[in-house]
Amino acid sequence: MSNTSQSRTPPRGPGGPGHGGPGGMFAASGRPKRTKETVLRILSYMGEFKGRLLLVGLLLVVSTLTTLVRTYSLKPLINNHIVPFIGSRDPDLSGLTRILLGLSVVYLIDVAAIYATNRIMLQVSNQTLHRIRCELFEKMERLPIRYFDTHSHGELMSLYSNDINTLRNLLSQGLIGFFSSGMVIVGVFFAMLSLNPLLTVLMLAMVLLMSKSVTWLSGHGRAGYRAQQKALGQVNGYIEELLEGQKVVKVFCYEQRAKEQFDQLNEQLRQAAVKANTFSGMLMPVTGSLSYINYAIIAIASSVMAIFGMVDLGTVAAFLQYSRAFSQPITQIAMQFATVLSALAGAERIFAAMDEPPEQDEGEVSLVTVRRGEGGRLQQTDRRTGLWAWRIPGAEGGEELREVRGDVVFKDVVFGYVPDKVVLNGISLYAKPGQKIALVGATGAGKTTITNLLNRFYDLPDGRILYDGIDINRIRKPDLRRSLSMVLQDTRLFTGSVMDNIRYGRLDASDQEVVEAAGLANADGFVQYLPEGYDTLLTADGGNLSQGQRQLLAIARAAVADPPVLVLDEATSSIDTRTEALIERGMDSLMAGRTTFVIAHRLSTVRNANAIIVLEQGEIIERGDHDELIAARGKYYQLYTGMFELE
Asked: What is the DSSP letter of 618?
């Protein structure tokens, strides 16, 4: 086990940082705090489609005008072509026919405008979401390891699935619905005003009541939808962790407890969903009922006015239709509020992740390949020579090429993953070029933390780390990490062939170099027996391989990288004793001439180390080779002879 598992990764249960605990991205559960900024930011992503959006706007205007025209045509239709011919034996229907044919054309135009609008917005929304997904993924690739320590994989996946999907509904349907409804409301208002100002005032009084109802209900629903999105991320995170750990669940008969914890999270989701959908579900019936009441009141008032000759029948019919056309968009907006609130909550989560500060890198020293010229002078080259150098910028534009030797020095390093808990306390150690340094100690002693700091996964608050005499803060992180190669206890394979997974260590490696690296790690033997050899497809993190085989591929991946410095974090932990003995020769060849840090619980694997460093509670308590430490009869002696066990 990694010695930092308890001190580095926060708990993933309800309330912990991985599930929206304090300080996490998903901590807030109240109503959206940046609704305006979120909407403007969404619109900014659509800015590159100004031409298409302008066309959509024109189409919406056309659609709105068709609505106004076909409704207004009821007035002349009734007054001029129906009422005058009531009771007539030989009515002239030519005018009526012309109006009906004209209305047919208007309806066809409306259908075409709506189809074109939806088609264009579908393209715009998908291209916008494509850009957002790309930027989100690119940003996550630049986030520091600390960020992933405090957010579960399920919650992060929820950004790409649930939150992106709700945003799709908003972009493809919600925005069009809002703009279209707004245009209809404005257009219908002026049309009603031209027909009868008195009825329009009465209409506005009822609409004001509807608006107040929508505002009150949506205000309460906003908080519920944000809580629902948060709870959904927690459920997804828990499910993903449990599915990945099913073997552990079954081995320890954890099914019932897992079910209870899932029920708890699922109940939180249910309660949040009920709260969110209760208010949003009330929007439609409340606004619908008020619209019917409004229609009835307008019908009664206009009928009374018609009886007293204040309006004609055509105006009554047209106004009643306008009253429906006026209240219907408000009802549609109310229906869209559920989608809008959910989308805004999801968008805030997405933008919160995108606004996280990226991993900082102020280094100016880079890693280059070199060759030896006349007099042994280092010269930079683009060809792979197996010789590396640090290119150090100097004053007045000059630069120095310093050979990468693997000389590593820790000076008074103090570090903790959280401010109130120190993991390393005043660590000072050195590794001379080509030395094999073994780090031993109980879990939580700080072994893996040392290698994490060497990779600059975390920055030092106090102390210094020198690499070939250069402060590692001056070295660009990609170049620093390219000079190191790690084999972790937790092997991670990716979907692809065996060849691709080994080549992950160095993408420009030839097939022959990959095969040689596999042979060096003693992985070639079992790979040859796979169905397609090196072309065998690995899926589900190499689920069709044994744990030991996966570990061998990880060692081969480190071998093909051919770095100056190696870090082996329990690299042989999943390999049986016989296989371990077989690969020791290959590992010795791999480590030859390279500075190597080895973390091991099997003390038999570090006997030939140049120096063994014994850690306890973040401090170095012993250093020496195997014989020296055994002779000293200290902590290492006790561990080696079994007087104490490594945990």
From this structure: T
CA distance 502 to 538: 12
- The mean of the pLDDT values for the chain is 81
Do 342 and 225 meet the contact criterion of CB atoms below 8 Å apart?
yes
Q: Is the pTM of this model over 0.85?
A: no
Regions of the chain short of the pLDDT cut 70: 1-33, 213-215, 217-223, 244, 247-248, 250-252, 279-281, 283-284, 331, 334-335, 338, 395, 540, 571-587, 589, 604, 643-647
pLDDT at position 280: 66
Q: In the CATH hierarchy, which fold is given to the domain comprising 408-640?
A: Rossmann fold (3.40.50)
Convert the pLDDT of each residue in 500-511 to its tens digit. Answer: 999 988 888 889
CA-CA distances (angstroms) from residue 253 to 65, 246, 258, 543, 590?
67, 10, 9, 22, 42
Structure tokens at 635: 């902590």
Measured CA to CA in angstroms, residue 75 lies from 93, 295, 320, 367 at distances of 16, 18, 11, 81
- Beta-carbon contacts of 478 under 8 Å, excluding residues fewer than 6 positions away, are 361
Strands, sheet with 462-467, edge to edge from the N-terminal-most edge strand = 424-431, 408-415, 462-467, 470-471
CATH 1.20.1560.10 fits 33-354, yes or no: yes
Question: 599 pairs with which residues across the strands?
Answer: 439, 569
Domain ranges in the chain with CATH number 1.20.1560.10: 33-354
CA–CA distance, 583 with 606 (Å, rounded to integer)? 14
